[in-house]
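Purpose: get a first structural picture of the assembly so the mutagenesis plan has something to point at.
Setup: two entries, given in the order below. No constraints added.
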Amino acid sequence: MTEVHIIGSGETKFGEMWDRSLRELAVEAGLKAVEDAGIYSRDIGILYGSSSLAGTLNLQNDIGSLLADFSGIASNGIPAVRIESSSSSGAAAVREAYLAIRSGEYDVAMVGGVEKMTDIYGSEILDIVGTTLDREWETFFGGTPAAMAAISARKYMHDFKVGKEAMSMISVNDHANASKNPNAHYRNKITLEAAMKSTPVADPLNLMDCSPISDGAAALILASEKFARSVGKDGVRIKSSAIAQDYLALHSRDSIYTLNSTILAGKTAFEKAGLKHSDVSFVELHDSYSIYGLMELEDLGFCKKGKASELVMDDIGLTSSLPVNPSGGLKAKGNPMGATGVGQFVEGYLQIRGKAGERQVKNASTGLLHSMSGTGSTSVVHILGGA
Amino acid sequence: MTEVHIIGSGETKFGEMWDRSLRELAVEAGLKAVEDAGIYSRDIGILYGSSSLAGTLNLQNDIGSLLADFSGIASNGIPAVRIESSSSSGAAAVREAYLAIRSGEYDVAMVGGVEKMTDIYGSEILDIVGTTLDREWETFFGGTPAAMAAISARKYMHDFKVGKEAMSMISVNDHANASKNPNAHYRNKITLEAAMKSTPVADPLNLMDCSPISDGAAALILASEKFARSVGKDGVRIKSSAIAQDYLALHSRDSIYTLNSTILAGKTAFEKAGLKHSDVSFVELHDSYSIYGLMELEDLGFCKKGKASELVMDDIGLTSSLPVNPSGGLKAKGNPMGATGVGQFVEGYLQIRGKAGERQVKNASTGLLHSMSGTGSTSVVHILGGA
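Result (structure tokens, whole complex):
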């Protein structure tokens, strides 16, 4: 079974880009990735396109075909498939590309994640983002992703006697890191006080606890070890890839603040990579809502359940022992859903090669990327490392 | 690299099922497949859920999580991912499952395809089915799948001096076979005269040239050779799997009646399987519009370009040398998009085991399954055979 290497990445700016269409964003990221890899597009064996909401928001399905066409590879017959797994679509697409290469069928796979969420055909953005929850049992009765996260947050705060500061600190850290990321949606730093006093969204969550509605695209080129070596790009590899599942609806879960899918995927990822938590140089968390940042640190095993607040209030900055979200995370780098998970790989690829500029984590040798769908029904965990 | 076997299948009736929800249909098919395979659901390593329009029609995305939850495997943490590739979603999902098993990561994979197209939340069904075309260059200007097929049909008829009879015969044959399929949407036989005189839809195509809007679900259990042998179900295997691409919009193609993606995927599938056309006992074609049935027979290499009418007018029935669509095809078995491609595998699995009842093809040893997205941007070809 071949190892799988990342040999190129590309990304657009994340943000509100009213003058850019879905396909324009995707093509920009894709071409950057091909150029970065230094390959020809005809070297690509298959494209995995990831978008969660294009069919609902942009009334454009078959995103695989769209991306293959407009990135110029369809003319060579190079196939494309769309992966949709809510906000973990991007990470799930990378995993499909990883399996495709491991199967021996392809030497090079492209992953392109994109979402165009502002200035779109569809309306009622909350209802549309709610299509990733259980429509018949959650969305239909008024449940929104923010409301679901708020329910988890309220019970978490009560059971573990945790104040709001720890959640706010997740966002403060995200904004601090995003201020050093030219592609981030929000590059302004925020103070803890400002984060805590922001406009309420779904109590106890306020505006600074919620990731934004973003446009953006990210792309990766993955390759077999043999191909990566042949082009001298065997520097960053996927040391392990894991995915696990929980119930779709929050009310079905064993605990509304415990992510069973994350526990399982995280455990598997560490086992497969043969690594321990202290080996990890940085983590990218799926903090679509700040409370998830705390839950994920715990459920990935970086601290005991209910104790993430101590870790976070201590230090999770770029120079800490566990830098969290050097990219700026979902809160500040942004959350263009189909691109979000792919964007975490772009960050991991830059960090491990020491190319992350101002936000470079010192001696970044091993990165853990965590992505999840909706309120945590699917979790996808990858560990990246040097060759 | 392990061989991949089909060890179980399940299917709902296809049709207008106003009293059944998307999840009910999916679960029925899934449980039938698990029961047919004689395995426990915990034996499943991963689920590939396929639906093209659920996000747009039913406002339910993350279909993977939904199916994993309601089929009872999420409680074991068994992961799920949704594959979307327009009307080839089901076949593309089978291919992802095939690659996942070939990668060595999983021994058993489930594929569940579903679409709930009637009695849905969304309205404007034509516009929604049109989300699988190029929205900005086709759908936005009034293009519909039927209109696109009609354009191809008109030029095909002109250039090859072919009358409408051959197209109608595709539908007549579909209805004849579907009359013997208890799960088919339409079980009525139709005469050539009735097919030719039906209500116009997009000239030269009439109602009898167009596959219906169907509800339905289909599921498969795939397994590695080792697992299949261990449960004594190593009778039907995927001899080859191929996928290829063309431009998304019809106007970009080299020829509007030549399916380059089908030519390429078909050629690859035959090469990989080491088989020739005369080895094929039956074919399942993606005849969402009858004209495509003719184009596909040609582009898959069963006759020369422009000559499918001769083949079709001669005989494509169950006792002919090349039985076409023993299931009833998309026209009469039905076309619940995400389930359609999976349903072709259900038919292939039944035929090769000699379990297809009244519509059994004699000595069915090798079946070719062809599925495509929209007007042919992606084509997926599989060849099934005995062990």
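Chain B has a mean pLDDT of 96.
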